[in-house]
Amino acid sequence: MDTTLKFSALLLLMVLVSVLVNASTFNNDFGHCERVVQKWASSSLEQKVKEDKHTLRDLLFFLHVPRTGGRTYFHCFLKKLYSSSLECPRSYDKLRFDPHKQRCRLLVTHDDYSMMSKLPSERTSVVTILRDPVDRVFSTYEFSVEVAARFLVHPNLTSATQMAGRLRAKTKGVSTLDIWPWKYLVPWMREDLFARRDDRKLKGLNNVMGGDPYNMEEMVMPLHEYIYDPIARDIVHNGATFQVAGLTNNSYTEEAHAVRHCVQRHKVLGEHVLKVAKKRLDNMLYVGLTEEHRESATMFANVVGSQVISQLRSSNSSMENAADNKLEQSSSFSDSNPNDDDHQNSSSDQKASDTVTSENAEAVKGNMTAGELMESYEVCISSLRKAQSHRRTSSLRRISPANFTKEARHQVPEVVLQQIRSLNHLDLELYKYAQDIFANQNGRTILEFHSTERWKSIFNKSHEFALWQVLSLGMTIVLFLFVFIVFVNARRTTLKIKI
């Protein structure tokens, strides 16, 4: 009995020591993390909000948060505004940005806000689009599976690695697998799809019955498993906040990894990151919302598009004038000292001038207005969506009957949705903040539009009023002259009669 009591007491003491040690370790870890996060946040919050943040600067940096619709903005807005020669090198690929290219005017990338450390911050305007966090998690999951399913096109291949090697050998340029975060998420899903396909073969499951596509484990990783995987925790959840704050695993900031993992271990420290992300949004030229698609696109055309058109027209005009001046100087010099070098310089300047003219983007070249840019966007996005829908249908057919639709999302249990919200608490707060910014921005844009229209109306009315005044004055003068002539003639007649 004594032995039993001694053993129980010893066991209780060991448990107590273990708890105290763990508590001490936790406190030490929390204290360390708190210092790391606070130090990073303090340095990040030093930047002041620009007074003229609504004015487009020399370089436009589109911080593209994945699955927010930013790709359509790139193709249907920015490609029409900026010529390819003005795009910064290495946009949208796995290679790091090269800041050495001169006259770089547009950068569109999934790189996070830490990219600003490579850019001339005082000459750079940042824009972004945010999306409801729950919808963004759904879309990220679906797109990861969709792209991974393309690798199942050859069922005889025995591994995802073999398939990847075969495709990479044929691929020229940049593929989805080169772009963050898909270079992490797609291989993960690809391995999972191949493993489940092989498991079905072992079990002899030739046909899988339909049901909830988000919980069809024979075909694809269920959503409720996906959201708790360490990869999703590190890359997907609160991804918008970490990207705007500059803390993704693709960051240029040295302390990004430590800060992000401290926040993931200690939820309360996330408030520091959220504060920095909000400050970054405050400093942006434009913040759009995926759910407010029409209003966001219209605002982008009026706030960003109109300024880009105006800026590039001015820039092109200056370059053309400079080229013309050089041509005149070269021609004048050649008259007195003709030689081959001067002729080459003259030809070179002419080519430069021709290049400026020929490389104008569609919007600038066509003297497009913001309204016409919006109309062009609507046509472009319609065809782009058709192509995306066709590609998606073709890809998901390979994992049928797991077909993702908006209607199928309603089948996902509320408990899973609540888990997604809990895992994305920072993104939910940032999205609410972005909604307020959007409402204020939209209200200001509408006010400016009506103000412009009112001045146009006054201007037009003033022209009408001026014309009426001129006509009225003319008629008065004619009438006065007529009366004067009649009076003079009458006077003369009277004088004649008297004589």
TrEMBL record:
GO terms for molecular function: heparan sulfate 6-sulfotransferase activity. It is found in: Membrane. It is a single-pass membrane protein. GO terms for cellular component: membrane. The chain crosses the membrane at residues 466-488. Keywords: Glycoprotein, Membrane, Signal, Transferase, Transmembrane, Transmembrane helix. It comes from the Eukaryota. InterPro entries: Heparan_SO4-6-sulfoTrfase (IPR010635), P-loop_NTPase (IPR027417). Residues 1-23 form the signal peptide. Residues 315-368 are annotated as: Disordered. This is Sulfotransferase.
